[in-house]
Every structure is written in structure tokens, then in C-alpha cells.
Amino acid sequence: MQKQRLALLALPFLLVAAAPPHDPAKLRDAALKDDTAWTIAEGLTTEIGPRLAGSAQEARARDWAVAKLKSLGFKNVHVETFDIPGWERGEERGAIVTPYPQPLALTALGNSGATPADGVEAPLVAFANVAALQAAPADQIKGKIVYVGNEMRPAQDGSSYGYFGAVRRSAPSIAAQKGAVAIVIRGLGTDSHRVPHTGVTNFEAGVTPIAAAALSNPDADQIERIVAQGKPITLRLLVTPRRTGPRQSGNVIAEVPGTDPGAGIVAIGGHLDSWDLGTGAIDDAAGVAITAAAAKQIMDAGRPRRTIRVIWFGSEEIGGNGGQAYFDRHKAEPHASVSESDFGADRVWRFETKLNAASAPLTGRLEAALAPLGITKGSGTASAGADLGPWVRAGSNGIDLDQDGLRYFDVHHTSDDTLDKIDPDQLAQNVAAWTAMLAIVANAPESLAGGRD
Amino acid sequence: MQKQRLALLALPFLLVAAAPPHDPAKLRDAALKDDTAWTIAEGLTTEIGPRLAGSAQEARARDWAVAKLKSLGFKNVHVETFDIPGWERGEERGAIVTPYPQPLALTALGNSGATPADGVEAPLVAFANVAALQAAPADQIKGKIVYVGNEMRPAQDGSSYGYFGAVRRSAPSIAAQKGAVAIVIRGLGTDSHRVPHTGVTNFEAGVTPIAAAALSNPDADQIERIVAQGKPITLRLLVTPRRTGPRQSGNVIAEVPGTDPGAGIVAIGGHLDSWDLGTGAIDDAAGVAITAAAAKQIMDAGRPRRTIRVIWFGSEEIGGNGGQAYFDRHKAEPHASVSESDFGADRVWRFETKLNAASAPLTGRLEAALAPLGITKGSGTASAGADLGPWVRAGSNGIDLDQDGLRYFDVHHTSDDTLDKIDPDQLAQNVAAWTAMLAIVANAPESLAGGRD
Q: Which molecular function term from Gene Ontology is one that the record holds (chains A, B) (predicted)?
């Protein structure tokens, strides 16, 4: 009570500069020394490991998350469940049969169809990229296994994933429409290891799914070298994932209650589910860890003006279901701003905002508080990620803390996404940036929630 | 004929400095621009791929090698076969059952025994290293699955593989003797990827082999984190390799005939076989490629004094059989010097010699010719590697061109040993160093073969 009154008294001062107990600079610098985020990431990846949406492992992750968030002192910790269409991996093997027999390292894409139980063997037809596949006549493809390459390279802002992502998102459906019996792609990875990159694909309505798998980059190189020799290639594939029917997923929610219930919610989070191949360290134990650790910094310093809601989303990977479920359930609640951490664990290098007019003063305060961490202002195009994006599209404020993505697609969606890929120092820089952002946004004296607060 | 007479006339001059056509400096610098080695490494890893000793793939590799060496212009190209005890990989899967169920990335060690066909599930007992395993009483181990860690770190000269190698070479036999039902080790790798490192183990006479597998480093980290929590661990393993009975392997031999048959042979080579997981690029397509490419540089410049014999050994990995077979068959032939390339494809940084008194003048000539490539003189402890080591131990001259091993154990014996791991520039530096060495040794006027020439 006393704390609450103190915060209200401090309000006029906040208009000039952030006041105790939530001085952004002080909290930011203290957060650099906090290991809460590391502890969360270590615990989730060790004690749960892989946690595919809809699986028993994801359900265990929710139980783990509730216990962890309660133990950290958060309030109103609870799970909001929803159903998803389940999909799970089966066997997956592949080989070059001719001209040079040898095994291939590959993995099924999410939503892939299956080969027959004893596999499929067919001639390969290869395309350099999606455009070449699109341009090819169906009679060149019918009855064959399609290969599609891509030229994705690392980019700090991850933008390469947009354009080149079509090879995974669209090529399988196009190949299926043209009569291919299966498809293998050069996966969306910037590494050169025998660890193929999975990720979701989607078949257009009316298209019967075919087996769709990603090759590791060294395997794609091998295919392309043989293609360059002009030799006909035959592949054998055994890929047997299946649709399981409806499965339960859920979002785990925790709060730092604010002193001003009418000021709108500051929603932050990452996603709790992961692909099944690795232990989901950079995607996205890091994101849930960073956001919860930053919220805890604020909580431990005293009550902020606004309620901070930490959401650990379920089923982001296989269809963005958790984000949509949260929006559908909470859309009547005013949100002052939304922010997601879902791009690894490397340092924040830029912040992006998408703010309504009343919230414009936040930008300068963010710039000042984040610059000492090496973070610059972007071009005003925040998206709030896959899970909180619906809010920005519906008009809420969005603030992105953009992580350096130069290494992200080296291990993204592979078995190699494990705890050792997280750099503790860069993880702490993330927590510091999020703490500073929360100190500013959760305490901002302006009316942020589109005039609703 | 004319060339031969010219070489003989040039002999007195060679005592002062290397004369045309084999000027070490000129040939060395020309070799930096030659892509023969790359072409061999690319061809072998692409057109054959994995080539486990005794397999059909290794036999195909011999056919490929004979054709390649003939097409390069070598003389007396032939295969010398021998039998080996065959071993081949079966299924291999593992998982933590309790306390935190999740799959493990592992691979059987060469010569591993098998679990029952439906696997084995047992409590884990963990040791930090081989010394701790050795010190433990049998009743602590009986009926359990043993885990043994190791602290191997990269070293430029690869020396870490000696000491830490005991975890792979010896721990399985020790664990079996003490009644373990299976063993998993932290593999001998310096990377942090989910690609476990295989390699040979040996069970002592009278010890019944147990299933023995290597975990990738991230998986070993995971086990050690849970051990550190003090939680009892149960593992499930399915590892079903088998001994196949006798299989045929063979050495592929090619020569650059010398002008002086009595001057002893200069024997160089690498090994043609590889582990079955990768395509054997750095281990050891690089070695066969480097040595053949260097010999071709000499051949193309004219006939050297001594015959250069290029040997692409079979079955190095599983038991060093090819090297022993060559020694047993050829030990009556005087060898002027022996040198093997079997430590990857990174640059040569040091040369080592082990020379008889008459051959001592070679050292200074090697030092002068190799220094411009950044190569320094070692401490006089050449070993000539696994395949040609028997010759050095029997008193022949040995010359080692030591490659930089700081990255070697990142991919050594994994599925990740693929062509992309070879740096073409560093490969060319190797060829240049070997060319300079051959120009000096094959033409040296001294009597090198222990007084037998």
C-alpha cells in the first residue's frame, strides 16, 4: 500500500525523468549481473528438453513453467489451454541410390506428408530455387522427387528468412500440385553441419501433402555437385510423420501487478514450445528466460504503474496457435504495449517501435536508456513477433528489441539448438535491455493504450 | 631418356643446391596454384562418400582410386588386398528415461558390442574421467550403464588425442571387466554440435564386448548437468553393431619411377578408408589428395632420382591393417624415407624428422624450402603416422609435415566430416609443402636408405 502511494506521488517527477524505484539505468546495469535468465534457460532445456507443440513434453514444460514462475514470485500464474491439430515425426531416412550410393542427412518439415511405409524411390529433378520450380511444367515433375535449393545467407536483422523462407513454406505445396512424389529442399540454415533444419510447411487447400524434408547444407552441396556433373540421380526416401488429430497446448501466464489497473497491460513473452529435434535453447528458452528475468527485475524493485504480463506461449512453431489463442481471449483488455523475444540469445543491437501519437515520447527515453548497451534506434517498424503481432496489427503499441541474427540460422530448428549455443554475457545484455524498456514503458505517465487508459 | 641423362649430369650441382627440373622453391610455388588435390578430395567424397574398411564402398573406392591415379599419369598402379575382421554399425538410439525423459545423440564406437535387440535400460553411474572409472570398485558398476567424461581441448599438434584418447580406447574394456551392461562416453571431440564422434575401441582378451557409444558434447553436458543435481539417472540404449567375419580390404599403390632404382623408395600416402558416418573429407581424402598431388608435381617436372611410391592405405581406422600389410609385404625393399598425411586439411605449421646420420643434411634443406610457407622445424621426433610408422620404428627415415590440428577434432570421426570442411587454400599449402619435401628427398645425393642405397 505504502509503495503504491509512493509511486503515485512520484508521478509528476516521472514526466521529467524516471524516478526510483524504477530508474531504467540503474535497473539495466544491475540486470547485467543477474543470472535468472540463464537459470531458466538451463532448467527448461535440461529438465524438459524438446517440447513439441501438443506433446506430453510440452505439457510437462507447462507444469515446469508454472512452478518456476511461482517460485520467482510472480502473481496470477496460470495456464490457458487450447487445442491444436497435432503432428508428429516418424522415421526419416534418405539415400542417393544412383549414381553414387550413400546416405543423406535429412529431417521432415512440420506438416510434411508421409512416404509409403517402405519408402519411395524415384528420379530426382533439381531446381536452383522456388522461382525455377514455379516456372517448370508439371510433366517435368510428375512422379519424381523434387530438389529445391536456396541462397540464404546470414543477415543481422534476419531478413533473409523472409525471402528465402519460400523454399520451405511454399515449395512443397507447389511440387505436390505438379505431381511430385516427394520433395527435399536445401534447409533454411546458414551453417555447414550435418544437422538439417526443420520448420513448418503448409499445403494449400485441396493439395494432398507429400513427404517434404530438408537436407543439411553439406548434403545439399553433395546433390548439387552431382547435378552439376549432369548425372541422373535416383533418391530413396523414408519419411513417415503423421497427423495425430487434436492435441492440447496452452499458454502459461504470470503477472507483476501494477498500481494502476486502468493504465493498460504491458505484455511480453516468448514461446515455450520448441521443435522436437533439439532442446529449444535459442528457440525459444532464451526468449521466455529473458522476458521473465526482466519482469522480475522490475518486480523486485517495487510495483510499477502498469501490470506487466509475461506470457510463455504454446504452439508457436507449428502454427502460431498460442499467440492467436491469447489474442482471441484477451482482446477486450487494453494493452499499453506488446513485445516478444523470439530470435535467439545474442545481443540486442537495435530497437524498433510502432507507437500511437500519445506514446511517441517513449522513443527518446528508450534511446537514451538503451544506447549504453550498444543499441540503436530503428526505423519505426515494430512487429512484436509471431505471438504478439496480432496486437500490433490491431493498433496496440509494439516495441521490438532486435537481437543479432548473424548466428541464429546456424542452429535454428535443428538438433543443435542446445544450451551451449547461448552466450551468458549476451543473454544478460538482453535482460538488461528488456529491464530498461519495462522500467520506461510500465511506468510511463502517458496514456499508452490508445486512449483507453 | 634425355631427361634421365640430364638428371645424372646435374647430380654434382645438387650437392650445392637443388637443380632443375626439381627446384624445390619453384615447384613449391607452382603447387600453390594447382587444384589436383582439391579435385581428388572432391571426387572421392562425392563419388564414393563413406567408405568403411571392408565394405562395398571401400572396394568401390579402390576402383575409383585406380582409375584416378592412372588418369593422373602414375605408373605401376595396382591394388594389394588383405583380409580384416569386419565390423559394421547397426541401429543406434539412446534416451534419458529418468529423471528428465529426452533423446540422446550417440553413435557406437568401432568394435563396440551390442545391446539386446530390444535395447537395455539401466541406472547410470558417472565418472569424470578414466582414472575415476579405474579407481571405482566393481560393485558400484555391475549391472549399470557407465558414463565417462573427458577434458580434451584443442591443441595445434593434436597431442590432446593421446592422453584423453584413453576414454575411447580403454574405458569400455575397463567398464566391461567391472560388470557394466553398457558404456557411453563423452566423445573425443572439441566441437559443440549434436554430431557424436566414433572411433575404434578395443576390448582386452577375455573381456566380452559391451555396447560402447559416444555422446555428442551437448549430450554429455546434459548428462553432467543432471549428475550435478544429484538426481539418479536411468538410460535406455539400443546399439546393435555386429562383427561380420573376414572382409577384404586393400592398399592402392602408384609410382613415379625414379632414375636410380638402388637409391631407395620415397614412400608417402594417406588412407583411403573412412568412418561410415561422414564422407571422410579431412580423414582422410585430404591426405590421399595432398600426397598424390605433390607426387604429380614432381612427376610432371621430370623423373626424380628415387622412385616415389604413393600408397592409399585401406583399413586404417578400424585397426591399422593397411599399414601393417604394406610393411609385411615390402619390408625387404629399402625405403629412403616415409611420410604420411593423416591429420586433416589445415596448413602445415611444422616439420619433424627422424633421420639416420647420412641423411642429416636433409634437415637444413627442408628448413630453407619450407620456411616461406610458414613452416618451422620441430624437435626431431617424426613418427610417419599410423600407416608408415612401422618403417620408422624399424629404422627408416621419417619426415612428418605436421598440420594445424586446432580444428581437426571438431569434425573428426563424425557425420560432419564432409568436403565443405576443407579450405582449398590451406589444402594447396599442404601440396606445396609436400612438393618441396619430395623435390629435396627424392633427389637427395646422399645415401638415405640406411646405407642400403
A: metallodipeptidase activity
Based on the fold, state whether residues B67 and B171 are members of the same structural domain: no
The rounded Cα B140 to chain-centroid distance in angstroms is: 37
- Our CA-based measurement puts residue A194 at a distance from the nearest CA of chain B, in whole angstroms, of 5
Judged by CB atoms closer than 8 Å, whether chains meet at B419 and A193 is answered as no
Closest CA to A300 of A41, A26, A10: A26
Q: Which of B46, B225, B278 sits opposite A226 (nearest CB)?
A: B46
User: How far is B55 from chain A, CA to nearest CA, in Å?
Assistant: 12
What average pLDDT does the segment B300-309 reach? 97
A→B interface, C-beta within 8 Å? 42, 46-50, 57, 96, 99-103, 105, 192-195, 217-218, 221-222, 225-226, 278-279, 414-416, 418-421
CA angle B200, B206, B210 (to 5 degrees): 50
The pLDDT tens digits for A259-306 are 999 999 999 999 999 999 999 999 999 999 999 999 999 999 999 999
pLDDT at B11 over 70: no
> Which residues in A lie closer than 8 A to residue B101 (C-beta atoms)?
49, 57
Whether B394 and B297 map to the same domain: the answer is: yes
Q: What percent of chain A has pLDDT over 90?
A: 94
Domain at B102, CATH number: 3.50.30.30
State which of A193, A210, A244 marks the end of a domain: A244
Q: Do A102 and B279 touch (CB under 8 A)?
A: yes
Is the pLDDT at A80 greater than 80? The verdict is yes
In a domain, A380, yes or no: yes
State the total domains in chain B: 2
A53, part of any domain:
yes
Query: Are A102 and A159 found together in one domain?
Result: yes
Distance of CA A161 to the CA centre of its chain: 12
Across the interface, whether the CB atoms of B46 and A222 are under 8 A apart is answered yes
| Other C-beta atoms lying within 10 Å of the C-beta of residue B318 | 22
Q: Average pLDDT of A123-146?
A: 98
Is the same domain home to B169 and B46?
no
Instruction: Give the integer Cα–Cα distance in Å for A129 and A170.
Output: 11
ipTM more than 0.85? Answer: yes
Interface probe, candidates A55, A415, A423, chain B, greatest B C-beta count within 10 A: A415
Number of Cβ pairs closer than 8 Å across A and B?
Answer: 88
Task: Answer yes or no: do A193 and B416 touch at CB < 8 A.
Answer: yes
What does the alpha-carbon distance between residue B306 and residue B255 come to, in Å, rounded to a whole number? Answer: 10
Q: Which are the contacts of B171, defined by CB distance < 8 A and separation ≥ 6?
A: B130, B133, B146, B148, B183, B185, B201
B195 contacts on A by Cβ (under 8 Å) = 193-195
Residue B360 within any structural domain of the chain: yes
CA A8 to chain centre: 37
Minimal CA separation from A269 to chain B, in Å: 25
Which of the listed residues A244, A265, A284 is the one where a domain comes to its end?
A: A244
Whether residue B186 is predicted with pLDDT greater than 60 in this model: the reply is yes
CA angle B151, B156, B162 (to 5 degrees): 50
List the one residue out of A34, A39, A38 whose CA is nearest residue A71.
A39
Flag if B57 and A102 touch (Cβ within 8 Å). Answer: yes
Does A450 map to a domain? Answer: no
The separation between the first and the last C-alpha atoms of chain A, rounded to the nearest angstrom, is: 22
Distance in Å, alpha carbon of A223 to nearest chain B alpha carbon:
9
Residues B209-230, mean pLDDT to the nearest whole number: 98
Q: Are residues B225 and B294 in the same domain?
A: no
Asked whether residue A54 falls in the same domain as residue A183, the answer is: no
**CATH code at A414?**
3.40.630.10
Structural domain of residue A369, as residue ranges?
2-84+246-443
* Region A419-441 average pLDDT: 98
B416–A194 CB contact, under 8 Å? yes
Residues of chain A contacting residue B192, judged by C-beta atoms under 8 Å apart = 418, 420-421
Q: Does residue B280 sit in the same domain as residue B307?
A: yes
Q: Which pLDDT tens digit goes with each residue over B12-34?
A: 444 444 455 899 999 999 999 99
One-letter amino acid at A73 equals: G
